[in-house]
Amino acid sequence: MKTNRLAGHTLPNEGRISRDGYPVCCGPAVCSCGARSEGLHGANARKRWHRQHKDNIRAAQNETRP
Ligand SMILES: [Zn+2]
């Protein structure tokens, strides 16, 4: 699968967490699967983290595939 999308792993609101109902610009990225990054600063850092996160998931899936 060449697509960069991964089922069950999306980045809602570009990964921004909400505080008091408002998305914050600086903070950890949170994947829809519940994974959470270290504190990040900016959308690009969150996207980079999410790409790496999905790569890790794929690598784990490939290892367990017969
Ligand atoms: Zn995820």
Largest sheet features: 2 strands, antiparallel
| Gyration radius over CA | 13 Å
Number of strands: 4
Class from secondary-structure proportions: alpha+beta
Number of domains: 1
What ligands can be seen in this structure? zinc ion
CA-based shape: elongated
Give the N-terminus to C-terminus distance in angstroms: 16 Å
H and E string: EEEEH
- Percent range for β-strand residues: 15-25%
Strand order of the largest sheet: 1-2
Rounded average pLDDT: 85
Helix content class: 25-40%
Number of helices: 1
In the predicted model, the low-confidence regions spanning at least 5 consecutive residues are none
Question: Any overview of this molecule?
Answer:
- The protein is of the alpha+beta class and 66 residues long.
- The chain has one domain (12-64).
- The protein has one helix and four strands, in the order ββββα.
- It has one helix spanning 43-64; strands spanning 18-19, 22-23, 26-30, 36-41.
- Strand 1 and strand 2 form a beta hairpin.
- The structure holds zinc ion.
- Zinc ion binds at residues 9, 31, 33, 35, 53.
